[in-house]
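Possible regression after last week's pipeline update?

I re-ran a chain I had predicted before the update to compare outputs. Posting the input and the new output here so someone can diff against the archived version. Not blocking, just want to make sure nothing changed silently.
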Amino acid sequence: MITLYTAVGRFEQRSDGHGNKYPVIIINQQEYQVTIPEMLCWTCLSWHIADMYQIRLLYEYKTKVIDDFIYGFNAAYVERLEQRGLIVSGKGGTANEARYNLLKSLFVIPVTSSFFMKTTAFLKFVLKDHAPLHKAKAVFRKERLCPGEKRILDLAKQTMLTVSELIMCVEIDVFDLPSEDSVMDALYDDEDTTNVTIAEDAAWCKQQRAVLNIVSTLYLRRLIIFGRI
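New output (post-update):
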């Protein structure tokens, strides 16, 4: 049995008013505080999909560059994060089955960067990190998307959709979902259809693997994050 993990939500830094900064994870506008080793485990899974062994390798790689770091990897950090809903897992007999079970109920949230944020990153690369100008310019370079990637992003920008709902949209050739009502009309067109049955049906769709590949690629390219209810 294969078990895969990934992170949910986004990272932000907070200050206690005395100059001390601490990390929080934001999910549905709710803040979750975490310990330093838990934060490291979460960052190992942010924009990554990995099994426990790979999480350990990523964790050990990150901690090598931190002087006097005393927290070795412990699977209990991952288990606590999962219990709090800050990471999720999916199991399956194959990698694709585990990946589908991991992602099927997660919402796809496009990442948007403001002009101010891009300008700040550009100046940091050039003035602080002394990065070559051509590399710094990559901050402003527009991502090139294939038609399938563009379609998934366009749908996700219109309204909140889970991965299984996106699979069904592609399967039945839906392009336009500007509101929750249009989602209900297109996908939930009878009393028996629920988010559970959508996830069950999407698992057998012809487009399942293709959409999973697109969603995974967008995630690894840091163009989306995952959310949950």
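Follow-up from reviewer: compared with the archived run. The first strand starts at residue 2 and ends at 7. Marking as no regression found.
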